[in-house]
Amino acid sequence: MSKKDSGSTIGAIVIIIIIAIIFGVIKGCNAVVQYFSEGSVQEQAQIVLDFEKEVYSIELQTEDIGKQVATELNKIADHNIPDLDLIDKAEDKFMSASNQLKSLDIPSGLTEEREIELDDIKTDFEQAYAFKSYAMMNFSKYLITHDEKDLQEFVEMTSLAQDNLTGAIAGVTMLKKELGVVDVDVSIQ
Predict the structure, then answer these.
(1) CA-to-CA distance for 69 and 62, rounded, in angstroms?
(2) How many CB atoms sit inside 10 A of residue 125's CB?
(3) Hey, is 158 helix, strand or coil?
């Protein structure tokens, strides 16, 4: 091996070592930045509780219409025709809730994993209300056309809405448990 070959080999090794050191420094800096950008466990718990509170306030906007729709759906069992205007109003109200949930921001201060978890939970809530809206749309179509396909779509959308809502609530509960949040409702209803 000549001096020239030996020098280029040593040069390549030195460059590889320098690149590895730079990569390590950058990775270390990212870890330090992430460490200082994340809040304490209490701060993260508060972020989750505030998020839950915002979701709950959006859900409350649909509570009355949800009860009214349930009453209207029971009319079918009594061979009465449900109020189509109310069903259409529920469709709009549920879609509005879905859009509000979609626009919620996930505040900074969570670990990357918890931020992803909370974003997935937000998506589940958003989709639950979108599916509720689609269910109302299909039920409305069924009332007009009496097509069994629309009724089946209503049933499927209702089931998907319930699945997403259950998943979202379970996700919030698990995240709060992970953060050590004690959530006891002592209000009198």
Answers:
(1) 10
(2) 26
(3) helix
Convert the pLDDT of each residue in 60-105 to its tens digit: 999 999 999 988 888 887 888 889 999 999 999 999 999 999 999 9
CA dist 47 and 94 (Å) reads 25
Structure tokens given for 146: 């009496």
Higher pLDDT, 131 or 28: 131
How many residues comprise the chain? 189
**CA 150/CA 156 separation, integer angstroms:** 10
- HSE-up (13 A, CA, CB side) for residue 136: 24
Question: Do 135 and 158 form a contact (C-beta atoms < 8 A)?
Answer: yes
Q: SS3 of 96, please?
A: helix
Three-state SS at 161: helix
Flag the least confident range among 67-81, 111-125, 130-144, 157-171. 67-81
Residue type, 91: E
